[in-house]
Amino acid sequence: MPAIRKTTYKDHVVDHVYQALLDGHCHPGDQLKEGLIAAELGISRAPVREALKELTARGIVDYRPQVGCFITRPSPQEISDAYTTRGLLEGYAVMATREAFSEDDLRRLETLVEEMRQAAGRGDRKAVVEIGDTFHNLLVSKNTNTQLAEYLERLRLKTHIFFCRYWPEMYSPAEIGDRHRRIVASLRTGDPLAIEETVRLHYRESGERIAALALSAGERHAA
User: 148 with 92: CB under 8 angstroms?
Assistant: First the structure.
């Protein structure tokens, strides 16, 4: 993947909000206050404002004029769309760069799969997401298309937040391992169609399951 620019205060705020969501300190519907975040991080309000605009563009924050910024409550369709789109983009990126993966890369991916399975076995929600992020970052690391990299990055945080919230209800530790192991196995075949379809299915399946759980949770809340 193309080199990422140096971290700025705005990036630091984005990561602060992202980590708060993964850790369960922030929830959909919570308001994000510029002044409070600025005070917590010891920075001015300007980068906080920039970060909230970026998070709004990514669909993680909902800006309400004259009211403020809130963690968004995505609809099941929005969740499904985010996963389907990421699968399309990542599937193409991996397929197009399949010949650039070395045996060391493939072994590293297999190691990450096992680490993810073990983290799932411990019930460590955040570790599963973080190791999975390393796994998928390696998958797209050979890509040199800057537009593709930008769109993938925009979807990365959103899909991680959904997955962290719901994966224990979706997959067993063994299934977490098997799903990612299938991606590595497809890469080993070198078959472009198999690689692309495996990655697309990987994301589509999770998107459908998370959307169903989100719908069910919404119905329970309404009741």
Answer: yes
What are 59-80's pLDDT values in tens digits? 899 999 989 999 988 899 999 9
C-alpha 21/C-alpha 8 separation (Å) is 20
Q: Tokens standing for 125?
A: 């929600």
Q: Closest Cα to residue 206, out of 173, 174, 151, 164?
A: 164
**Domains detected in the chain:** 9-71 (1.10.10.10), 76-222 (1.20.120.530)
Count, residues in the chain: 223
Using one digit for the tens of pLDDT, what is the confidence trace for 184-218? 999 999 999 999 999 999 999 999 999 999 888 76
75/54 Cα distance (integer angstroms): 20
Asked if residue 58 lies in contact with residue 157, where contact means CB atoms within 8 angstroms, the answer is yes
Q: Which two tokens stand for residue 44?
A: 């001015």
Task: Report pTM.
Answer: 0.85
Query: Within the chain, how many helices (H) and strands (E) appear?
Result: 9, 3
Under 8 Å between Cβ of 52 and 81: no
Report angle CA 211, 209, 27 to the nearest 5 degrees.
Answer: 50
Task: Report the C-alpha gap between 32 and 40 in whole angstroms.
Answer: 12
Distance CA 150, CA 5 (A): 12
Q: Are 94 and 195 in contact (CB under 8 A)?
A: yes
- Sequence-distant (6+) residues with CB within 8 A of 122 are none
**Rounded distance between C-alpha atoms, residue 179 and residue 174, angstroms:** 9
